[in-house]
Amino acid sequence: MSYYEMAKTAAEYIMSKCSKAPELVLVLGSGLGDYAEQIENPTIIPYPDIPGFKTSTVKGHAGRLVIGELFGVNVAIMQGRIHYYEGYTQQEITLPIRSLKLCGANTVLFTNASGGIDRSFVPGDLMMIDDHINLSGKSPLMGPNEDEFGHRFPDMAKAYDKELKQVLLDAAQKADVDLKRGVYIMFNGPQFETGAEINFARIIGAHAVGMSTVPEVIAARHAGMRIAAVSCITNMAAGILDQPITHSEVNETAAKAKVKFTALVNEFVKGVADLV
């Protein structure tokens, strides 16, 4: 079975469980999964039930697809994601996004928990991703091209949609959220970065660091989806503060940012209703 056929099989299974095709995908990062509780009339599908989907092994990622309606928009929420550091290939971790594209979704909002590199950030801040740097050393597009999704060499110069960025900025104003902006850099993990690595990341222009999102953005861009993304700054990156970094800190800070995160995403969904 080809990769495209795998995605199509997964899409057909998903659509057999819900009555309406999703228009918008929300990918919820570490500690942000509670947002899925906003969905009206939800259909909940555990990842292991979906052909080809892998199981998330990380605390803070429920590992299920929640499909329903939100402010009049048909939404598919990935309540947790699969990570490259869990031992999966980048093709495996991006299968959900490609499957949801085949279900009919053309717009996606990625979210993640990240470490703050910009010294003006504080834990709990939210940052709109303007661009990214891929230090994973891989791409989900490596290997034979899946022509059914897109052409061999997709342009990544404007991966993050200009119009959706403005929707996010407008949403932040309506929600009274001080939305930062910056460049997200991906390291493989699962270990947190060294002080030297963070210093390098700062020198080359990164404002926040994490272990996800970039492969999914590449796959979504390849498939012609419109993309926006938000990082929740859950800790300051290595070397900025004289204290250890823990995953429990990541989840705890994300939980504390829940109110403004929810307000921001709610206004984004309302604002994007006419675009999906």
Characteristics of this structure?
276 residues, alpha/beta, five-stranded mixed β-barrel, 8 helices, 9 strands, 30% helix, globular
Short recap of the structure:
The chain contains eight helices and nine strands.
What does this protein look like?
This protein is α/β, with parallel strands linked by helices and about 280 residues long. It is about 30% helix and about 25% strand. It has a 5-stranded mixed barrel with strand order 5-8-7-6-9. The longest helix is centred in the first third of the chain and has 15 residues, at about 5-15. The model has no long low-confidence stretch (mean pLDDT about 90).
Instruction: Let me know the average pLDDT.
Output: 91
Radius of gyration: 17 Å
Structural class: alpha/beta
Range of strand content: 15-25%
Separation of the first and last Cα atoms: 31 Å
**Shape, please?**
globular
Helix content, binned percent? 25-40%
Largest sheet: 5 strands, mixed, barrel
Give the helices and strands as they follow along the chain. HEEEEHHEEHEHEHEHH
Fold topology:
Elements lengths: L2 H15 L6 E5 L11 E7 L17 E7 L2 E7 L10 H4 L1 H9 L3 E10 L9 E9 L27 H13 L4 E8 L8 H9 L4 E3 L3 H9 L3 E11 L10 H10 L1 H15 L4
Parallel strand pairs: 1-4, 1-5, 5-9, 6-7, 7-8
Antiparallel strand pairs: 2-3, 3-4, 5-8, 6-9
